[in-house]
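User: Here's a chain of 249 residues. Predict its fold as tokens.
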Amino acid sequence: MANARKDVLSALGRSVRARRRERGLTLTALSERAEVSPRFLAALEAGDGNISVARLCDVAHALDATAAELLAGVDAPDAQARPVALLGLRGAGKSTIGPKLAARLGVPFVEIDQLVERAAGMSLGEVFELHGEAYFRRLEREVLAQVLSQNPRAVIATGGSIVHDGESFELLRKAATTVWLKARPEDHMSRVVAQGDERPMANRKDAMAELRTLFAARAALYVQAAHVIDTTSLGVEGSVDALAAALGD
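Assistant: Prediction complete.
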């Protein structure tokens, strides 16, 4: 019972915070409009406020809403209880933004490619060279299914090509909140090279054109994600802030 009550208060707090941000109000501004203290509102948004019905109506009115609207979805599953799956080409920022977002949400960060390499006992390049793509896809699906079953809350960095495997992509969209970390092709290339990986350019004079073609092909799949974050315009910290806000944090 205590846990259920805490879940309700936490959900109500997120609802109030989201509504306040939509209205562009600070805690101080809302406290003045609702005639409650900023400290009380901070506790309410943190899920620690034991608010009365009358006081909830005051807060709702100050947010141009009704108490029923603030309570709508309180009994629905918590969006943050779902894993967050990051999609995008190499250089999208999954390995940079992912850990920062996980720290913000207080959840583990998991990289699917690393787990595939661990399961195979070899690098991804060796997996493709020795066993082929079909073997890699099967192993990737198995690893993904295990991660999703064992981590109800986590930030997951997926491989850039996972959207081409219909079964894995469908599993992600059903079991996780998907996010496309979008960037210009030029940024993808420069970020990968900046990390010390010159393979994209090695002996390939048309590497940039090939990357643009790949980007265009996958964009139609990536755009099916629940959220799209433009890392080119937002940068790392801005992307983390925007994604945390989109997730209701």
